[in-house]
Specification:
Chain B: It holds the Pfam family BPD_transp_2. The structure holds two protein chains of two kinds. In chain A, about 70% of the residues lie in helices and about 0% in strands. By secondary structure, chain A is mainly α. Chain A has one domain. The longest helix of chain A is centred in the first third of the chain and has 32 residues, at about 10-40. Chain A is globular. Chain B is about 75% helix and about 0% strand. The longest helix of chain B is centred in the N-terminal third of the chain and has 30 residues, at about 1-30. A two-stranded antiparallel ribbon of chain B has the order 1-4. Chain B has a two-stranded antiparallel sheet with strand order 2-3. Mean pLDDT of chain B is about 85; it is low at about 1-10. Chain B is mostly helical. Chain B has 13 helices and four strands. The chains are: A mainly alpha, B mainly alpha. The interface between A and B is large, with 45 and 39 residues.
């Protein structure tokens, strides 16, 4: 087959696929951050730790209780969301009246605690988690080989992202959420239980992170530091996209994954830094972010 | 009229209290190396300066930078490189390191002040991570090994800094200079305007101040002083490594400042001394692998229970009971 842009198509499409997969994770994580930020006005620094927790719950479940991948995909987000809700109810709640930076600092401290404890017990090297039987193997598409599990990641995260978008933009619950983002006091005056809404929103955002963690478990090894590595990149993605829109977060996440993949083909040295460079360019050209409202 | 006089005397009293505190600290600093291991003291002083530089941003301009590790590391690497490869004397090496950090601070500042609040923190964190990856790959930083065996050299080409005692007094002198600069900056009209921006930015703008310019100057000053701390640290330990550039370091300096007292002049010094002592003490014991967890716990406790920090709480306590 002919070369594309001077590269064998297998290499180009292979890296684009990896980029799309990373982009799926960026999308899921930045979506969770954006939802939490919308209502709580805090940046959840523990998001990476909660992503890691999701992967570890799946790993624990399989190793000690024989819980398979499909059950873990539902169970792990619920478990981690429960932990998140406990954190919101006992700790975060005390800070809503203070400067929003304290929420960032509190969740940063929590991230250190969670990550540090796991490093203590498991070290920094990863634990293996095998791909479920139904998703093993792959298809030859002619121009490239597509492993089934990787295709599944993209499909699953897109479904969850669009489901979230639908829920927020098209349902009554979503309307409450959007109203709460605009004006929580007025919403409460209409008889909506806003504190409960806040708790559930935090739980849902955290569940998204844990879901991403379970998806990631079979392709990246399950390691205590997997969350902090990805979180800073996701922060850059969030700055690029702006946290104003749900679709913005998803599209920016996927786009940045693709750009990262392309960079790996054309200039591998810059693949770790390209997203930060894009962030700089966006800040110079459009400081509010690609999808952000002028603030 | 009377209240004005009272206020003035209070201000004078406040000033003299700071002066007295500073004199006391200086006295302790001068005799300390005869009682405590000088290398440990130098570590405390370097981190104290680092935290003071950070506090200038958070405490007085209300800007939370999550990327100060980049300046600490830049100071260290550039000074280390200058001393090792260009063979300059330590004071010139430090000067080059500080200029490099200030230049990086200018770039960071220019970009980050385009956004406010939480975005500001995320942008500085992302930029610092960019710098981290650059230092991993750059040929002059020695990658994972870092720069090892940086010579302390002869100050002004004459005074040997090889011994820990002369090195200590050199570090103390640098700390005093850095601390004085920060103190002067805070108590100048410039510092007042920074506080005004922190309290009410739209109002400062409406009064005609070019807010972005003030923020930028504060950022550059803070970066330069953080670089000064990093430069000095690289000479003390004869090492510049990726640990300094890691985002954990940016978190640590926030913790030091928060624990000591954000927006107080001595808070960061107290916080840095506490955290460094704790780390040194714990790293030898059975709890060594729990250090990050313990730091995280302190973070959570500080944020939830005493947001004014050690010095802030003492201030509150004396105000309540002795005024």
């Amino acid at each position: 087959m002919a070369e594309l842009l001077g590269f064998p198509p297998q290499v180009l499409f292979g890296q684009l696929l990896i980029g799309l997969i990373n982009g799926s994770f960026y999308a899921l994580l930045s979506l969770g951050l954006a939802i939490i930020f919308g209502l709580l006005n805090i940046i959840n620094f523990a998001h990476g730790a909660q992503y890691m927790l999701g992967a570890f719950v799946a790993w624990f479940g399989l190793k000690f209780f024989g819980v398979n991948y499909w059950v873990a995909l539902i169970l792990a987000p619920l478990v981690v969301a429960a932990i998140g809700i406990a954190i919101e109810k006992t700790l975060l709640r005390r800070l809503y009246k203070e400067d929003h930076l304290y929420g960032l600092l509190l969740t940063f401290g929590l991230a250190l605690i969670i990550e540090g404890s796991f490093v203590h017990f498991f070290g920094v090297s990863g634990q293996p988690y095998s791909v479920p039987a139904a998703l093993q193997g792959g298809n030859n598409l002619g121009f490239m080989f597509l492993p089934t599990y990787r295709a599944w990641i993209i499909v699953a995260s897109l479904v969850v992202c669009f489901g979230t978008w639908y829920m927020i933009e098209r349902t009554k619950l979503g309307a409450y959420l959007r109203a709460g983002t605009e004006n929580p006091k007025l919403l409460q005056a209409f008889g909506i239980n806003v504190p409960l809404l806040i708790t559930l929103t935090y739980g849902y955002g955290v569940a998204l992170a844990a879901f991403a963690g379970v998806l990631a478990a079979p392709i990246y090894s399950v390691s205590p530091v997997m969350g902090s590595n990805i979180l800073i990149v996701v922060f850059a993605v969030v700055v690029i996209g702006g946290m104003g829109s749900i679709m913005g977060a998803v599209v920016t996440g996927l786009l940045m994954g693709l750009i990262e993949g392309l960079t790996k083909v054309f200039y591998p040295e810059a693949s770790t830094t390209v997203i930060f460079l894009v962030m700089i360019v966006v800040l110079l050209v459009r400081p509010a972010g690609l999808f952000g409202k002028e603030a | 009229m009377t209240t004005q006089v009272l206020k003035n005397s209070a201000v004078e009293k406040g000033m003299s209290k700071t002066k007295m505190g500073f004199m006391l600290l200086l006295l302790i600093g001068l005799v300390a190396p005869y009682a405590i291991y000088p290398v440990f003291l130098m570590k405390v002083l370097c981190f104290a300066l680092f935290a003071c530089a950070f506090n200038l941003m958070l405490g007085y301009a209300g800007l939370l930078s999550f990327g100060h590790a980049a300046f600490l590391a830049t100071g260290g690497y550039i000074t280390g490189y200058a001393v090792m490869e260009m063979g300059v004397t330590p004071e010139i090496g430090i000067l080059i390191g500080v200029i490099a950090s200030a230049a990086m601070g200018f770039v960071f500042g220019k970009l980050a002040i385009r956004r406010q609040g939480i975005y500001f923190a995320m942008i500085t964190l992302a930029l610092a991570q960019l710098v981290f990856f650059l230092y991993v790959q750059a040929p002059f930083t020695g990658g994972e090994n870092g720069l090892q065996g940086i010579p302390r050299g002869n100050l002004f080409g004459v005074i040997s800094l090889k011994g820990n005692l002369p090195m200590y007094y050199f570090v103390l002198a640098i700390f005093v200079i850095g601390f004085t600069i920060i103190h002067r900056a805070i108590h100048s009209p410039f510092g007042q305007i920074l506080k005004a921006i922190r309290e009410n930015e739209p109002r400062a703008i409406s009064l005609g101040y070019d807010v972005d310019k003030y923020k930028l100057v504060a950022f550059v000053l803070s970066a330069a002083l953080a670089g000064l701390a990093g430069s000095t640290k690289s000479l003390v330990f004869q090492l510049a490594s990726l640990t300094d550039a890691n985002w954990h370091m940016s978190g640590e300096v926030i913790l030091m400042t928060l624990l000591g007292g954000v927006g107080t002049i001595f808070g960061p010094v107290v916080g840095a001394a506490t955290v460094v002592t704790l780390q040194n003490y714990l790293s030898q014991g059975p709890l060594s692998s729990w250090v990050p967890v313990i730091l995280g716990l302190i973070f959570v406790v500080c944020v939830l229970l005493f947001r004014s920090g050690i010095v802030g709480e003492i201030k509150k306590f004396t105000k309540k009971n002795f005024n």
